[in-house]
Specification:
single chain; alpha/beta; seven-stranded parallel sheet; three-stranded mixed sheet; 12 strands; 40% helix; binds nicotinamide-adenine-dinucleotide
């Protein structure tokens, strides 16, 4: 039976990826350090599955990582462990340097002993920085990270490429656009909009809402990662995108429209424009022709269905809110009253 390690599996994409891999019948080991961003509710659905195992570990801990790899001999490691919230990286970037650079370095050093194990490293479209209107970045476009989070992700990509070149590690890098779907931390944009709608609170939008992002439903991303494991070329990188760009304000209006259709929108709920994020990139956009043509992957969930699924998930999974780890954040949202 094929075995995979997924790092960061208590977070948003990691937990969705584990769910998908378990559905395909693989054995999956979830390695997560249990940071504020993790949520045990995310693995509730499959935690008793015999094919699932959880290990609490920071990927920077080379010794323990080595023991786990030696014991389980996985066919592939999907590395999703990272600090991910741009705003937090602007306030204080230490944890980002630790997990996103030093953590990846520890993983690479450990893998030097296990060169037959594939590494699929999940990076981001943010490494390419601001993309001009009508353009889309390709896999070989220059890196131009413009916030501390993106800079740490870019640094880890460079480290990985250097280990592929120097030590012939079997690694592949992926760059995905913005994900949305079930199990995403409430501090991120779409869950925040949904939380505000469900709780009749003002919907906060940065600046004038003109920043544009490309949006993909998380399961489409997970399917792409599996396909890359199966068919991706070692040493290469793949963009994973939906080709659907939306300005933040248009996305908010779309979510409002869909929530009106399912009668969960209170007409007193208003949009509130708040002070913009410093150095806020205006637009990210990926050219994902390579994965579409070479690996025959395509995204299948359109924005309307994806938003509907996401709205319904947050509406029906109230315990997700209860199990958020960050107490201060819960207080701010009024979730601890
Ligand atoms: N969310 C997106 O839209 C998006 C888009 C493209 C790429 N990515 C990348 O995908 C990955 C997952 O993103 P997410 O949104 O699911 O993040 P998330 O913040 O929801 O989850 C990250 C998880 O990683 C764990 N973690 C952090 N540092 C760790 C460490 N040193 N050792 C072990 N575990 C650690 C956390 O505890 C958390 O459970 C990240 O690498 C991110 O850069 C995310």
């Amino acid at each position: 039976m094929k075995k995979f390690i997924v790092t960061g599996g208590l977070g948003f994409i990691g937990s969705n990826l584990i769910k998908y891999l378990l559905e395909l019948g693989y054995f999956v080991i979830n390695v997560d350090k249990v940071s504020y961003a993790s949520n045990f509710y995310n693995v509730q659905e499959f935690k008793k599955n015999k094919l699932y195992k959880f290990i609490k570990l920071d990927i920077s801990d080379k010794k323990k990582l080595d023991q786990i790899i030696k014991r389980y001999k996985p066919n592939c490691i999907f590395n999703l462990a990272a600090e991910t919230h741009v705003d937090r990286s602007i306030d204080r970037s230490d944890d980002f340097i630790q997990s996103n650079i030093k953590g990846v370095h520890a993983l690479l050093e450990t893998l030097l002993k296990y060169k037959n194990i594939k590494l699929v490293h999940v990076s981001t479209d943010e490494v390419f920085g601001n993309v001009k209107k009508n353009l889309r970045t390709k896999e070989n476009s220059p890196y131009e990270p413009l916030n501390p989070y993106a800079a740490t992700k870019a640094a880890s990509d460079h480290l990985i490429n250097s280990y592929i070149n120097t030590y012939k590690l079997k690694a592949i890098i992926t760059h995905c656009c913005n994900n949305y779907g079930p199990r995403q931390n409430l501090e991120k944009f779409i869950p925040k909009i949904i939380f505000s709608i469900l709780n009749k609170k003002k919907i906060p939008v940065y600046g004038k809402g003109i920043n544009s992002r490309e949006w993909i439903y998380v399961k489409d991303h997970c399917k792409a990662l599996h396909k890359i494991y199966l068919k991706g070329k070692i040493g290469e990188s793949y963009n994973i995108g939906s080709n659907l760009n939306m300005r933040n304000i248009d996305l908010v209006k779309r979510i409002i429209l869909i929530s009106k259709e399912i009668n969960i929108f209170d007409k007193k709920t208003k949009i509130k424009f708040i002070q913009d994020r410093p150095g806020h990139d205006l637009r990210y956009a990926l050219n994902s022709n390579k994965i579409r043509t070479k690996l025959k992957w395509s995204n299948s969930i359109n924005i309307k269905n994806g938003i509907l699924k996401t709205l319904n998930w947050y509406k029906n999974n109230k315990d997700f809110y209860k199990m958020i780890k960050n107490k201060k954040f819960k207080n701010r949202l009024g979730l601890r009253k």
